[in-house]
Amino acid sequence: MTGIMAQGAARAKGLERAIVAIYVLTASLSLWGAAALADNQPPGAPLAPALSLLDDSAESETLELAQAAATPAPEGAPAQPAPAEAAPPPAAWADTLTVGGHLEAGITGNPDSPANTRNFGRLFDDHANVPVLNQLWGYIQRPLDPKATGWDFGFNVEALFGTDARFLHLYDQLNHAIRSDYQIALYQAYAIVHVPLDTISTDVQVGVYGSPLGYEQADPTANSGYSFYSHSYISNFGVPSQHTGFLTTTHATDSLDVVFGLDTGANAWLGSSGGGLNNDTWLHGTGGFVAKPSDSLTLTALTHIGPESPKRTLGPLADSALTYFNDAFLTWQATKELAFASEVDYVHNNAVRASAYGASGYVSYAFYDWLSAGARGEIFRDNNGAFVASFKNPFDFINSERGLPTSPGGVAGGGRTTYGELTLGVNIKPLTAAKITPPKPLVDLLIRPEIRVDESLNGTKPFVTGTQGHQVTLAADFVLPFAF
C-alpha cells in the first residue's frame, strides 16, 4: 500500500511539473506572438489584444529586452556565443557503399635457382626469379556502422585475379576455370547484420568469408600496420583460408567479443565437392574470443573443428576423423611508432594422425609516416611431413586438398622437418614521402622489399628441390590501392 501511495505521489508530482512546463511554454509563445503583432501596429494604434493582457511591468520588461538585443555590445566586450548548428542528418544507407581494390605485383629472387622454379615452403611468393601479378583485387561493400546502437545491415563482395588465386579457392568454385597460374577466385561474399540486444549486441555474417583464424591476411591492405610480402608457415599451412556458413561476433563487454560459427569446412563450398573433400556430413564449427584489455593490446584465440579429409582417399573414415585448427595471436602497440605481435598455432588431422605446430614473433617501427621497418621470426614443426610442401602446376594445390590426382612430381613435401625462418623488410610509401597526391582513383603506393632466410633445424634438406637445408630469398612487391 505504501508503495502504491508513493507511486501516486510521484506521478502527481510529475503531472504537476508537466503542467508547469506546458504553461511556461504557452506563455512564452504568447509573448513572442504579442511582440510580433505589436511590431506590425501603426504609430498611435491601440495595442493588440494579446499585448493588452500584459501589465505595465511586463510590457516594460519586454521592451527593455528588445532594446538590449538591438544594442551592439560595447567594444572589447566578450563575443556572444553563436547559436549551435543543427547536427547533420545521418548518411543514407546507399551513400555508405564503397567500391575499390588494389593491384599487387612482385618478384622473389632465389640465388640457388631451383630447377622446378619454385621456392619451397611458400605459397603466394612461390615463383622463383619470375615477376608475377599476385593480385588484381576488387571489392564492393557496405560495412556496418561501428557506432550503431540499433539494427544495421551491410555486405561485402571481394574477388581477385592473379597467381594468388590458386590458393584462395573454395572447392568446386572457379577452381578449374582457368588452366594457368593466373586464376580467378571469389574470396568473400557475405551479408552482415548488427543485432541489438538488451545489454549486448551481435554481428552476424552469412555467406563466404575469410577465416578469422590467423594473424596475417591474404589482402595486403587488410594487414594492420606493418606487413611482409612473403607469408609465414603458420599463415600458409596452419590455418584455413575461407569458410562458407555463418559467423557471429557477440560484443559481450567493451573489451570482450565472443566468436561462434558453423560452416561447411576449411576452404569448402556447399555440397560434397564432387566427391572430394568431406563437407556434406558434419557441420564444422568455429569458436573463441577476442579480448582487448586496453586500446593498445588485443588477444585473439580461435579454434576450428570438423572432418576435413577427402572421402576419395579415406572412404568412410573421412566422416568421423576430425581436423583441429587452433590459433592465437597477440598484438601490442607499445608506442605510436613501436609495435609487437606474436602467434602460436597447432593443427592436427585425426585421419592421418598428423600434427603441425609453431610460433612466430613480429616487431615493427615507424620512423616516418612513409617509412617503417619490421622483422619476423618463426619456428614451425611439420611433425609428420603432411603439411608443408611446394606445388608446381596450376591445379596441384587445390587437387591435393580435395584428394584428386595431382601432376607427376607436381607436389613436393619436406618430410618431418622443423622449419625456422627470419624475415627482415621495410615498408615504403614514396608518394607520401614526396607529398604527392595521386590522381583518382589511385589512393597511395606501398613498396615492400625484404630478405628472408629459411633453415631446416633438424638436418633435413627440403629446399632447392630437396638438395639443401637452407634457402635465401630477396623479394619486393608493390601494392597500389584504388577507390572510386
Task: Write structural notes for this entry.
The protein has a single domain (104-483), classed as Porin, CATH 2.40.160.10. The protein has helices at 2-39, 49-52, 56-70, 233-238, 311-314, 396-402, 430-433, 463-466, and strands at residues 98-109, 132-142, 152-162, 183-196, 201-210, 242-253, 256-263, 284-294, 297-306, 323-333, 338-349, 354-368, 371-382, 389-391, 411-413, 417-428, 446-447, 450-456, 470-483. It starts with a helix and ends with a strand. The radius of gyration is 33 Å and the shape is globular. It has 484 residues and is an alpha+beta fold. Helices cover 17% and strands 39% of the residues. The protein is built from 8 helices and 19 strands. Strands 1-2-3-4-5-6-7-8-9-10-11-12-13-16-18-19 form a 16-stranded antiparallel beta barrel. The protein has a two-stranded antiparallel sheet with strand order 14-15. Mean pLDDT is 84; it is low at 1-63.
Structure class = alpha+beta
Strand content range: 35-45%
Give the N-to-C terminal Cα separation: 67 Å
Low-confidence stretches: 1-63
Principal-axis shape: globular
CATH topology group: Porin
Q: Strand arrangement, largest sheet?
A: 1-2-3-4-5-6-7-8-9-10-11-12-13-16-18-19
Can you lay out the helices and strands and say which pair or pack?
Elements: H1 2-39, H2 49-52, H3 56-70, E1 98-109, E2 132-142, E3 152-162, E4 183-196, E5 201-210, H4 233-238, E6 242-253, E7 256-263, E8 284-294, E9 297-306, H5 311-314, E10 323-333, E11 338-349, E12 354-368, E13 371-382, E14 389-391, H6 396-402, E15 411-413, E16 417-428, H7 430-433, E17 446-447, E18 450-456, H8 463-466, E19 470-483
